[in-house]
Amino acid sequence: MKNSTEVTQFIFLGLTNDPELQVPLFVIFTLIYLTTLIGNLGMIVLILLDSRLHTPMYIFLSNLSLVDFGYSSAVTPKVMAGFLIGDKVISYNACAAQMFFFAAFVTVECYLLASMAYDRYAAVCKPLHYTTAMTTSMCARLVIGSYVCGFLNAFIHTWDTFTLSFCDSNLVRHFFCDFPAVVVLSCSDRHIAELVLICVGSFNIFFGLLVILISYAFIFITVLKMHSSAGYQKALSTCASHLTAVSIFYGTIIFMYLQPSSSHSMDTDKMASVFYTMIIPLLNPVVYSLRNKEVKRALMKVVLAAKLSLGLRF
Predict the structure, then answer these.
(1) How far apart are CA 120 and CA 266, in angstroms?
(2) Average model confidence (pLDDT) for the chain?
(3) Secondary structure letter of residue 259 according to DSSP
């Protein structure tokens, strides 16, 4: 990526410079990251191993786990290195790569959550036509489309940012190469770059949110018409996990990105960023597994098989 910049590296301010907090924070973030890896990769393996989970809902869920693992891994290891060995320097190209993959996976998650809402709409509102509406090919198109949109959006934002000139400060007031924190360092006119972020970001966020709101409006109407309490409870349990994940994810993303850089408080942004880069990927497997009987059943099956295997071995 060509650029007429004199800056060859960036330096993160990080979350804190207090030396007494470096080791405790390293331990906390390491535990969060390891739990995130185990939870999300475990969910993917669980879905692959259990043939009863080879349905559209769980195909979407396995891809959600993959992107949660992806954007957490794009950020957290560098933060951990900063706490452990004080490595807060990142090269120009590595910064661009971090921004690209983070933006790609976050955008993919927006579209996957919208696809999951449509899947829930088809399951609750059109149960007799569900198998014809959500075929394997339809599911594949929605998943592939989510990745295409995500990586296209990431390319636009990364190119838009790193074609700016960076000739003054290289001190990033953040713990990773997020767009608002990097673009304010530019010594060239950044208004076009900010406008592109707001326009493209608004489209991605609000298109996905519109699909989710319309899907749940129809689901809500269908649930109100149900005369069976069992059907009512099943519909609510089907949608509760997804609604929880949507509320947490979209609330944080809207707060972070749909405002001009002049309105950003970097300290507030850091706290919000910790939440959506590390806590959300940690929470999603928990939210979906705790409220999902099929996932619990598959997990118990794997645990039982492991116990039997160990018992036979010893």
Answers:
(1) 37
(2) 84
(3) S
